[in-house]
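hey m, so remember when u said the tokens were messed up on ur end? i reran from scratch. heres the input so u can diff it against urs
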Amino acid sequence: MPMTTPWFHFAVALGIGLMIGLERERRKGEGPSRKPAGIRTFALASLAGAVAMHLGGAGLLAVACGGIALLAALAVLRGPQDDPGLTTEIGLLAAPLLGGLAVGDPALASGLAVTVAVLFAAKVPLHGFIKGALTESDVKEALVLATATLVIWPQLPDRFLGPWQAINPHNIWLLVVLVLLIGACGKVATRVLGERLGLPLAGLASGFASSAATIGSMGAAAVREPALMPGAVSGAALSSLSTFVQMALVLATVSPPTLVLMAPSLVAGGAVAGVYGLFFAWRAGGGAGGAGPAQGSAVSLGAALGLAAIMGIMLVIAAALRDWFGEAGVIAGAAVGGSIDTHSAAISVASLVMAGSLTPAQALVPILVAMSSNALLKIVLALSMGTRAFAARVVPGIILSMMAAWLAGLI
């Protein structure tokens, strides 16, 4: 059957109604107290919407939806009053709309119908998660994260402003969003997997987005709940492992010859960071499957704003140094760029290798310098965002991993 014929559109509309109605039929119950709409009602409602759209367009579809809405209202008034829910009635209103949409865009209508059916079927797990797993604090944090991501971030100018044109508000606020998101993911992972696995896995995963932001977020977690210290330290250390892994992936893409020479440094530094993080993961309390202790705030907005302020200050300082002293060679440029984003600095150096301006051997030191300056930023964040005890545990891991990278690269 051609996909553009009315019969095909009617078949899709009928399938939509049957799919949604199948789920409703299983839940409508039996006897006088049963729900009013089942598989046949939904199938007819969806087909009615398709026929109305085919015969009279949007106007007749509106009339059909109004009639079905009236019937749904009467069913609610005449039905049992012990169930205040309106999910079935709202779904019955959606059925003719999806049937009408099937006349113009069958694929979109089918996809939306699947979504409606999934929402119907997911009543028990959704209600259980919202009422049992989420707390009032979780809801407030989700609203803060949504506001920061969907309301504030799109409104900020995506251009460089301020002294020496050093600050991009759009990029700086992205760091705030990352810190909030990392904190939320760490809290969820700790609650689901326990402290021994939750925070370390969250740190390892979020380190691919920003190891510096991860260390700041883990430091804030240790400030809020000192009992999370070993897990937070493990997550911070394993985020540095992500830096070494991501550096290898970047160099493999941009300049494989540079990766060959950098491999000993990356393996050595990553191994030290990994062992250091696993040691604190082993020391962390709680079982792998136990509920984590994190019941308070995932991360404060103030901590995220503080980290963004530190990053902004370092951006201004880096831009001022460039303006005052110029680009004193590739190494100085890599040091300035690496303090902000070690992978971007490495890409610029590796690109010079591919262009023939540098040999792979000459790129080794600039890339290590970039990674070292980024490690310095991590140390600053560990000292400023976490407690003194947190910094005392995290900073040695950062220093040891970079010392291993330098030794393996220069030997």
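this time it looks ok to me. The two ends are 71 Å apart (CA to CA). if urs says something different then somethings off w ur setup not the seq
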